[in-house]
Specification:
Length: 273
Amino acid sequence: MSIGEPFVQLNKASVVYRTETGEGRPVWSDVSLAIHEKEWIAVVGPNGSGKSTLAGVLLGLSPISEGTVARYEGLDNGMKGVLQLPEAQFIGDTVEDELNWIPYAQTLPEEARAAWYREVLAAVGLEISPSRSLLTLSGGQKQLFNLAVALATKPKLLVCDEATAMLDPAARMDVLAAVREAYRQGTTIVWITHRLEEASEATRVIGFGEGRVTYDGDPHLFFYGEGEVSPCEALGFDLPFVVQTVRHLREQGVALTALPLSMDELAEAISCL
């Protein structure tokens, strides 16, 4: 999928939070980056590095202290977010209430709306009653439901901040499959995660360290690097299993023609030897 027009442009943006004593605590310093239509961007970094601040800035929840944030006309109001605290995003009391806030739902007759509810929930692997109270959902179900609501609006830009953090492996696969399909249909993805294996889906990686962008570029170069230490390792991370496997193969004299990031890519690269 080719890159399109810029959606959001940050230029020398800084964020300073005020403490109870009135002192400033810098969170971001001099962050410049652009998010373009049709990208899948994985945002990674240690805890407290500033990666979640990006979600707040993009969604207008965290004001910047210096610099500029430009949102381009082509984005309109088509930006949705899935944040770490799902309850903070609820508007209604029940599943049905929440889905009915979506404008498309309001155009559907009652019978068609019931079928649409099932379709929206099934997209993320949920099987729950539309009359169910949101407060009775588990933490993982709440996160899945927030993603279902966001995807149902068919956003132009979807910002996910640790969207799989509370999910078991099967649910994580459901989430990634749903987001992958949204990307295939043209949604731009900003995927903030501490699970490095999820970055294999991305077309671009942005690494944060101590409130600054330490890497912005190709995912393969982020993990494999060009020298002894890759940008991934420079951020203090252990390399994902797939990348470690390729390194061990190289040490044994087995040179792969590709640089795989996923298990499927690794299997294909080995089969071509």
